[in-house]
UniProtKB/TrEMBL annotation:
UniProt-recorded Gene Ontology molecular function terms: ATP binding; bis(5'-nucleosyl)-tetraphosphatase (asymmetrical) activity; glycine-tRNA ligase activity
Any one GO CC term of the record: cytoplasm
Protein's name according to its UniProt entry: Glycine-tRNA ligase
One GO biological process term: glycyl-tRNA aminoacylation
Gene3D superfamilies: Anticodon-binding domain, Bira Bifunctional Protein, Domain 2
Length: 433
């Protein structure tokens, strides 16, 4: 029973995401392409807002962090040194009956698939490991040079470690923040954008002096910073928890690690990893730090927070989905909502209402992403805006012509209040803080 309810939430969100222009299947007119997704006009706004909020908290919000934007394709030596060519792999098993492949460590998928062959025993081949790096061939003459699309954005921060120190006045402890695309040859992409072959990450690599106690403290601090970020942006705290990695499940670089997991309709699922990478990466790249004051030289340790932009975007969509009677709405945090407000004239065929509403719309548009709507009746417009999570609807009616006020209707409570037109900007900015 529970499962059916959850499954239907996923189906409803998937259908809404397509219908209203959040997420489209990649290359859909050619039957799609497994593991690739396109963001539509509203999806790109939601995803950009997720990235903006991350940058605001993790880069602008801190004195000890600077940002970079490294290239997607790097010298292949980077991947040799980082260990990805050897160790960046997933174990895969294949069903002997239907040849379906699944990750050997995905207990749920294994069980699910076994249920589809109830009469068969011993359906799986032995596990084989598959490297997740996506190869690309560069150059115009044969043989072309083999390179890779980055499997994680992380290495960009390490290879630029010295550049960042030399070009800024930053000193350990400090962090490098980055947001960008990564690519993985995932064996079983699925659950909409949850596991894709092309996705975006938002990461902080934070460099500290090597010290067990101090680095453990930093690790714990960043766990809190990151889980609070999701909570402050409206994710239900009951659906968030940490999942510590057992030593044998840790990535090849991790000294210790925990995941922030979200209770998705398809089960508790990782949305961000927090890793203590020790000196693994800087050491492999032969990099060191020299403290200018003391002349002391050492290899800093790294605490990493590595979130998925697409997973966060998907979970913000799922978590905000609400049904109240006939009403469907996305209770998105206003900072994340694609449109901050919709502006309507009460009636489309009254030029004086339309003109006043157009002026309000144009003025608000200078500051916020607002949308114009004059189709159908007010009820239909509210319905359409609720469904895409627009926090406020502004209606210009006959009273507006008399006293320069408008009706502002709140998405979550459906309550309306009169607001002076010249107070509208501050009304929204106050609520977007
Ligand atoms: P998983 O175990 O789910 O494959 P991972 O542990 O390999 O994930 P990391 O390498 O720690 O993931 O990457 C950090 C973050 O990048 C993840 O928490 C997730 O949000 C995001 N991410 C990783 N792989 C994918 C993917 N294939 N599609 C979408 N997001 C991803």
């Amino acid at each position: 029973m529970d499962l059916n309810v959850h499954t239907s939430v996923m189906e409803k969100v998937t259908s809404l995401a397509k219908r209203r222009g959040f997420i489209f299947q990649g290359s859909e007119i050619y039957g799609g392409y497994q593991g690739f997704w396109d963001y539509g006009p509203l999806g790109v706004e939601l995803k950009n807002n997720v990235k903006k909020e991350w940058w605001k908290t993790m880069v602008y919000g801190r004195e000890d962090v600077v940002g970079i934007d490294a290239a997607i394709i790097m010298n292949p030596v980077v991947w040799e040194k980082s260990g990805h060519l050897k160790a960046f792999s997933d174990p895969l098993v294949e069903c002997k009956v239907c040849h379906r492949r699944v990750r050997a460590d995905n207990d749920e998928a294994i069980k699910d698939h076994e249920n589809s062959h109830p009469d068969e025993k011993d359906i799986w081949t032995d596990a084989k490991t598959f490297n997740l790096m996506t190869e690309v061939l560069l150059g115009t003459t044969e043989p072309k040079e083999k390179s890779y699309l980055r499997g994680e954005i992380t290495q960009g921060a390490f290879v630029n470690f010295e550049n960042v120190i030399n070009s800024t006045r930053i000193k350990v402890p400090f962090g490098i923040g980055q947001i960008g695309k990564a690519f993985r040859n995932e064996i079983t992409p699925g659950n909409l954008t949850f596991r894709s072959r092309e996705f975006e990450q938002m990461e902080l690599e934070y460099f500290v002096k090597p010290d067990d106690d101090a680095s453990a403290k930093t690790f714990d601090e960043f766990k809190e910073v990151r889980i609070n970020w999701y909570k402050n942006l409206g994710i239900d705290p009951e659906k968030l928890h940490f999942h510590d990695h057992e030593p044998e499940k840790r990535a090849h670089y991790a000294k210790y690690a925990t995941d922030i997991e979200y209770k998705a309709p398809f089960g508790w699922s990782e949305m961000e990893g927090i890793h203590h990478r020790g000196d693994f990466d800087l050491k492999n790249h032969g990099l060191k730090y020299r403290d200018e004051m003391t002349n002391e030289e050492y290899i800093p340790w790294v605490i990493e927070t590595s979130g998925g932009v697409d997973r966060a975007t998907l979970f913000f969509l799922i978590d905000s989905y609400r049904e109240e009677g006939e009403r469907v709405f996305l209770k998105l945090h206003p900072s994340l909502a694609p449109y901050k407000a919709a502006v309507f004239p009460l009636l489309k065929n009254k030029p004086e209402l339309v003109e006043k509403a157009r002026n309000i719309y144009k003025n608000l548009k200078k500051e916020f992403n607002v949308v114009w709507d004059d189709r159908g009746n007010i009820g239909k417009r509210y319905f359409a805006q609720d469904e895409i999570g627009t926090p406020w609807c502004v209606t210009v009616d006959f009273e507006s012509l008399e006293d320069d006020t408008v009706t502002v209707r709140d998405r979550d409570t459906a309550k309306q209040e009169r607001v002076d037109i010249d107070r509208l900007q501050s009304y929204f900015s106050d609520r977007l803080k």
